[in-house]
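Quarterly update from the structural biology core.
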Amino acid sequence: MNKPFSDPVEAGNVRLALEAETVRDRPKAPVPLNDYTVVDLFCGAGGMSEGFRQAGFSILAGSDNDPDAMATFARNFPEAQSILGDIRIDGVRQQILSAARRATVLIGGPPCQAFSQVRNHSRMIDDPRNALYREFVTALKAALPPAFVMENVTGMDQMGARDQILTDLSICGEYDVRAQVVDAANFGVPQTRKRILFIGTRRGTGMTVPILSGSGATDSIVLARFTGDRRPRYQLVVQQNLFSMRLAEALEDSENLTAVTAAQAISDLSDLPVGNRQDEVDWSTLPEPRSAYQRLMRAQAADVTANLQVPRLNKDTELRLQGIPQGGNHRDLQEELLGRYLTGQRWGQTNGSGRLSRKHFYAYRRLHPALWAWTLNTKADSVYHYEVPRALSVREMARLQSFPDRFLFTTDPRRGPLEGRHDGGPAHSRYRQVGNAVPPLLAERVAQRLLIELTASRAQEGIRMKAG
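Predicted structure, tokenized:
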């Protein structure tokens, strides 16, 4: 087994191991527009940090225990401290707290595994399965920055944990805190992805906790399945009111960024072949951008883009995808395509029935070009192209998450098992990093609203100082 980072100093210098990477013309990070700073706990690849950076914040540090995700963070945030390790280890915690005390905004998405305890009246923060959530609260209490953002899955809201979390994050009245469920597709991300945001501003600063207001597109437009004599088809259905119809017009307009379709996000990369092993491609060999969103994603990109490898496809999957319409899934497969092995090629584990099992059903889903993607998960076969029968490259998945093309996904160059590393190898890790991320465009909208409050607070403080 390869030796993991054994101390905080070594953990804090992840980026030194990445200098051997050969992607030409390193991506140019946006220049910070102000002196507001961010520390990102449980940062993963850095989706939240990227959104705040795009809004003009400086990223001081990011922390995670996954060495591959931290390699990506270090690669894309060379200006920031990369802290690799378990936050529950004292040396790692001290590094994080040192950075957090200098932050204007503390952000993060700690895993929260236990929700059922709410029903038996025990406190969520006391459950040992929520130790990482407790560490976020502890860091917040120790640093007391002017503002914070904690994001998570909506499951904690569905299990009735919201009130407990609001109480914990208020830090005994130090913060005003609000919780809000948002869908990324309502903020220009070409993917429906619901998250719950806990946003807090410190009392006495004059700041108001911002409330995000999205387009409302996901409540106005749905993809409906129609059946008949021919094979099923999918098409958009729009609520019959002026507001919804205008949103539908915006969605159809490739120059409008209010709502973005899958085709508007990735159509310039459609020609990538199945099984493509060329991970780096010069932009000059690819089609010109075909939408405002594609131009936005390509902005400040290097001459060479990366993460373009496409997984191979077995013959059975190819046959099934040819039998699924745009926007469709396993429900659209004809009876003859439901057999476990169609061409005699043996792959995966069999359930003994000779037919596909339920665990396969999530894999046979094709995008619809005229609508945003469904919520992506961490696997390459969670989504297939709307036009050609193939999986997506990491770059295409990143586009659907709203990562700009200058943002490169990589892995720790050390081979074999490492502390915090997930099984599956480098290719799987890159998909996993994308699938677990917060969409940067959503994070940017949060950051923009906080920026307004922070700027107003600073102005008022300046007026008071002059008056005093």
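The radius of gyration is 23 Å.
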